[in-house]
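Handout, page 2. Input:
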Amino acid sequence: MRNFDYGIIGNCSSAALISKAGAIEWLCLPIFDSASVFAKILDKQKGGSFEIITGDDYNCSQKYVSNTNILVTSFTNGTDTFEVIDFMPRYLYHNGSNHIYSPPDLIRYIRVKSGKPSFRIKYDPKLEYAERPTITEVRKDFLKSFTRNGTYDSLYLYSNLEKEKIINGSEINPEGDIYFLISYNQKLLRQSVERTYLKLQRTKVYWLNWAEDTHKFSDYNNEILRSALILKLLSFDKTGAILAAVTTSLPETIGEIRNWDYRFCWLRDASMVISMMTKIGHWRSAERFMNFIIDVVSDKDEKIQIMYGINREKNLRERILTHLSGYENSAPVRIGNAAYKQKQHDIYGILMDVIYQQFKLFDITLQNSEELWTIIRSIVRIVKNNWRKPDRGIWEIRYSQSHFTFSKLLCWVAVDRAIKVAELIKRNEYVQKWGSLRETIRKDILKRGWDEELGSFTQAYGSKDLDATALLFESYGFLEASDPKYMLTVKAIEKELARDGLMYRYKTRDDFGQPTSSFTICTFWLIQALYKTGEQEKARKLFEQLLSYSNHLGIFSEDIDFNNKRLLGNFPQAYSHLALIETAMLFARDIELKTRF
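Output:
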């Protein structure tokens, strides 16, 4: 059984997944949502990979260079040892400007540590999702891989090794450092070991500086920083978009069809990530995301989608790649995501919440303030006209709509935060105008979302089903942690949806049957709710247990199998890591207070 034993590297333009054995099994170039170059993770035979092959006597281990997104895979047989350092270049231009160099390149730097190691290279790119044959040829300065049929695409590999040895998979006995540079573009400057080493050091400096700018915490600081570094890798510098994950179609359950493309910007996920990044000191990410929002919601009558392409695309047409078998034969493999058409009323509240935080915490330019204020008023108008209508909900039910309680709650949040912004900018007429709408929604939720018999808020009005989202009523300021309704809801949800310390999102049968895996963020929500309602010791125990289910590098995907605790779903998952940080901060603050007093 594999447990998503992958590390991630990236440069905020694209990212790659590298297995514990040093194989690049997922890479899209030139950007995150481009067609794949390597996709062995989705089809072991057809997907393509870049592997380091050693004898059976070698063992391998993997770690990050401390406080960076540079990954080191070490190989040793006890006598002969070498390491593969993988990274995607990201650093400030050396001319003193503030511009960042982050090309569509991936670099593998191999160093001999002891003895006389030997290995072979399997370089097998499969462009355009391996839909048609990829041809690789030896050229003067590089290997060029390209397609002849269908969509044209090409890729370049530079190295100081003999190109024939690479393409033939010959045995390699290195006497010095080796580099491989995979590039979407043909390089204009001559590549060398020295130039590669310089890129490695500059990239290391960039990540060390970024880590240093991240707030430090008294407890779980390593876990918080690794999660922050992962969230940074899920950001797309060009537009400010935040990806939900860098993969597509990694299944929520092995052998089932809950497989989706997550290489897009969900406003919900992105807003929550930005909120968290702001709290840990990275404010520029918030500024870039605000510009992304202004760009995609430019017109006053613009229909706000739940998600967009990372280049601001609005049409995310979904199709199935029938030629790929899927992760562990869990088809289908999808690219694109038809959920972009859905109506989900919760996005208004989550988006408004992050906009409010920016008004509250930062000086925003007059131009941006006015544009954001226009968006705020548009959102309130949308909420006023739609909050009584059913929607698909946060879990994106594909074939039915309901009056989801959480969607109503987030409509309340949208109006509440709009009022708070109006108070900050002294627009008292809007405070009064919107106040009655906020109270109307609140009363409706308390009346129709609460089930006296169950002693809990329910998934939807009139339903007897429970949903983990009700754990967030306190986080969004709708109820106090000490409110009897909230405390009863936490107990009811834990009893109904928790299993061996992990959480279902819900147990309701949906479009694809009854969910069978745990949704990782929901377990973090439960831990937070337990902590806030006075069960700190139990919360910490569950938190420690959950941390133990990450992979060997402390990385989480979207889901966890209840039975064998293996990771499932797209990877790495922004939702999971922002919730990890948020939960860890609860414990860290508690220790800081005890120390201070």
